[in-house]
Amino acid sequence: MTGRINKAGLQVAPVLVDFIETQALPGTGVDADAFWTGFADLVNTMGPRGRDLLAQREELQAKIDAWHVEHRGQTFDAAAYRAFLSDIGYLVPEGPDFAIETTSVDPEIADLPGPQLVVPIMNARFALNAANARWGSLYDALYGTDALGDLPQGKGYNAERGARAIAWGRAHLDKVAPLADGSWADIDSLNVTDGMLSPQLEDQGQFAGSIGHGDALTVLLRVNGLLIEIEVDPKSQIGAQDKAGISDIRFESALSAIMDCEDSVAAVDADDKVLAYANWLGLMRGDLTEEVSKGDKTFTRALHGDRTFTTSEGHDLTVKGRSLMLIRNVGHLMTNPAVLDSDGREVGEGLMDAMFTVMIAMHDLQKTSGIRNSVAGSVYVVKPKMHGPEEVAFADDIFTAVERVLNLPENTVKLGIMDEERRTSVNLKECIRAAKHRVAFINTGFLDRTGDEIHTSIEAGPMIPKGEMKNAPWIKSYEDRNVDIGLACGLQGKAQIGKGMWAMPDLMERMLVEKTNHPNAGANCAWVPSPTAATLHASHYHQIDVLARQEELKAGGPRGTLEDLLTIPVANGQNWSEDQITAELENNAQGILGYVVRWVDQGVGCSKVPDIHNVQLMEDRATCRISAQALANWLLHGVMTEGRMMEVMKKMAAVVDDQNKGDAAYTPMAPAFSGPAFKAACDLVFEGRTQPSGYTEPMLHDWRLVAKANA
Predict the structure, then answer these.
(1) Residues that are catalytic
(2) 253 is in an annotated binding site
(3) 291 annotated to bind ligand
(4) 566 marked ligand binding residue
(5) Structural domain boundaries in the chain
(6) List-wise, which residues carry Cysteine sulfenic acid (-SOH) (predicted)?
(7) 578-710 adopts what CATH topology?
(8) What are the pLDDT digits (tens) for 568-620?
(9) Global pTM?
């Protein structure tokens, strides 16, 4: 990249300098020279420390690899393995009990269990949709998906299907906010007179307020902390057919949304990073808009405002119109050519994100009215892919340094620790301790965590197939321990304990059945793939009191054991048939290719990708990591040959081409198999054994840069 600008010894891409100095900094009160000097100091002090931590990862991995090679063919000795992990510093001593000391936390984090969205920040429309997904129409969510057991047919309104959606909604109200007498299905009016709701609720305390009156009334109920709106509008299409004039039931849905700079985006250079930062700036200022076209209509999408209801006592109740937004920064591994240090090295992308996204969030912190994100005065940064307590402490120090440069109070930045790497899982208590003043979020992520599980023990032997991982002893221990340790460390009432994504956005009926597991597990948030899914998942939090469930879990004592967590999912004694091997190879290869071809050729970091059975799955780099590591592991242990693997990759490339034949922007991989996307997918498998922690990012970034240069 030519024409860089020197900023305090850093060589910065002009497009980034222009954005920072003309758009991001104005209004923050931070001087440009002081900003760049502070950032250069951050790079010069934290950059070497970050490189040392990455070298430590590689040293530990090399020792673990050597141990497994040395003990290959022997009966596995769990005690000796655990002692070895302690000896090399992979497993650290556990200190005394403690409770986190996080303060100034917004209620969406501390007090209100509910759904959480994760959305690519580089797509303004998606980001706005996620921010506005705080509220969603239950009738739309039921009518437009398979939640009712089938999909809508035709384009016109189907009154019979509409009646089924209405009946579902009324039955739900009977379960979570029952009337003192009778059923919600039988009422013929809904009124508020002198602060009293008629008909009355069995628990009058669930009536939170109202707005409007008569034929334009919205009633607000509160169930387990979440709000439900019942809209009365007999002049609307739905309300006119309803004997009570109810036109919709709206759920408080995505209480929080993670704006993602990491796994769901393809940001490989300065132009990409500026797009991500510009959208974050618009969200923090409250002025982000996007022109949206549907059919022959075009409209401007913007952030929803707040609304004011009147409580039964006659007081004003301000109801927030938007999700609380967190920002997911890049982890410690990746660098980006947008900024070079004084030695000409690319700067750590996580350092860029820390400095730039927190500075941008100052636009929100300085507000006292209008569209605000954090009313508690905090910035919520989710930090992924950290390995153990030292790396969490490193992140904590990075944000302390950023706060000093920006003159922010210490611990303004609240930290989300993603429990998705094995060294973090086995040391979770100490990871939380390392940032106990700012921790506001922990979670589990099955896919990345499985990818690291495979890579960490890749020399131990061939691993069980991907589909069997959820039944392995380590995964149950992982899910249980995450909640138990979080509760034991005092996260209840101060931080989120989260669970992972529902990856099948079109299968809402199945989600309604299965995703009750997450609030039942004691998680006060869980990821969903769309605003519609958030609305449907909110129904689970109406039925399950998560805070009460957490009390039950605390009283029951710890569940998963470290021994189970350290159980390696090696396929001991399994003798797979050729058909089983072929099915596993093709399933993983097709998933990798289907994701990578959009990532490399089109810069799409997250999308619905059809699997080998044409089931649409929400794919990001985490799903790619597990598939690539699964194949790299089988290749290493001779379950298949390189030649057979390449045959499968070519066969599945043709399948993916056919699945994308309706995309005018798509570039086929077959029959030449010479494009950067196909080469990238192959590299992830054939060189997956040597990739740092099995991550896909380095190769994907390199090949995306090749594709951009070719274009």
Answers:
(1) 328, 620
(2) no
(3) no
(4) no
(5) 578-710
(6) 606
(7) Malate Synthase G; Chain: A; Domain 4 (1.20.1220)
(8) 999 988 889 999 999 999 999 999 999 999 999 999 999 888 888 888 888 88
(9) 0.97
